[in-house]
Write a structure and sequence with these properties.
AB_hydrolase_fold; 9 helices; single chain; Calcineurin-like metallo-phosphoesterase superfamily protein isoform 1; 308 residues; Rossmann fold; nine-stranded mixed beta sheet; alpha/beta; AB_hydrolase_1
């Protein structure tokens, strides 16, 4: 029974567009490109090998004045070929770089979509951000929509210095989308209800109050379980796939990014104002050496305001 339920949940979790909405081409100079995306869009295409043995497509949308990078894990019924307009808008309004990717079996990515493969996929993308684009944990925000909340929280639970997480129409777990169970089973998939407890950075939850695919209760519970809660956005009347059309969506995201920037600036000031542990130990070491040198000369260091 458990195995059958797990298989059913997995089948309901993944709906890659068939046929894919795009292909990847290599120009004569070796540069990878997507059809319809011109050079002035400032976008790089990557083909990344994963631990699962697949090759996935990732696109890096660069903003010239970005402070942060948003790693976007999309929902289960789209591929990145049909999301260009959204990435343009997010990049422009939020002033961030956007790293998007297709799961194994989606778009031009090879393999089959499975829970484990999505974890391998986002790990490969994160490694690319570090090695190819020099992105640090503290400058990275993970964004997961619907099923994309699974790989997002998988990675977030492993990055203690992460700047922030955005959960958009997220799920508590695969089985809980089908049945309102109260406990986690071994055969469940995307156990976000357990992983959210391991995330230490600020978490923004966005969910529609009229979501008929993933009930609003999923978003509310994830927010309740977050260690560092950011003010949630409950979109009144919002469904599962239309939250971007509400003006409060981009406004709230922009406020979140601004808050993360202020937190980052405040943290930098604190680090600059306080001496490091190494500096403190070094200063103590210098004072100790002076005392030893004085004693060797037959002198006695007398504390101030005291008689010898």
């Amino acid at each position: 029974m458990g195995n059958m339920t797990s298989i059913l949940a997995a089948k309901l979790a993944f709906f890659p567009p068939d046929p894919p909405t795009y292909q990847v081409y290599r120009e004569e100079n070796g540069k990878l490109v997507l059809p319809g995306v011109t050079a002035d869009k400032n976008m790089d295409v990557h083909l990344l090998d994963t631990r699962g043995g697949n090759t996935i497509v990732a696109t890096f949308w660069r903003h010239p004045f970005a402070r942060f990078t948003l790693l976007y894990s999309h929902a289960n019924a789209a591929d990145i070929g049909e999301m260009h307009e959204l990435f343009y808008e997010l990049r422009a309004h939020l002033r961030v770089n956007i790293m998007s990717y297709d799961y194994s079996g989606y778009g031009a990515s090879s393999g089959k979509p499975t829970e484990l493969n999505t974890y391998y996929d986002i790990e490969a993308v994160y490694n690319c951000l570090q090695k190819e684009h020099g992105v640090k944990q503290e400058d990275l925000i993970l964004y997961g929509q619907s099923v994309g909340s699974g790989p997002t929280l998988h990675l977030a639970a492993r990055l203690p210095k992460l700047r922030g997480v955005v959960l958009h129409s997220a799920i508590l777990s695969g089985i809980r989308v089908l049945y309102p169970v109260k406990m986690s089973f071994w055969f469940d998939i995307f156990k976000n209800i357990d992983k959210i407890r391991l995330v230490t950075c600020p978490v923004l939850v966005i969910h529609g109050t009229d979501d008929e695919t993933v009930d609003w209760s999923h978003g509310k519970r994830l927010w309740e379980l977050s260690k560092e809660k950011y003010e949630p956005l409950w979109v009144k009347g919002g469904g599962h796939c239309n939250l971007e059309s509400y003006p409060e969506y981009i406004q709230h995201l922009n406020n979140f990014i601004n808050t993360m920037e202020m937190n980052s600036a405040r943290r930098s000031k604190q680090l600059n104002a306080n001496p490091s542990i190494t500096e403190t130990k070094h200063n103590k070491c210098l004072r100790f050496r002076k005392r030893v040198a004085a004693l060797k000369k037959g002198c006695c260091i007398v504390p101030k305001n005291r008689s010898p």
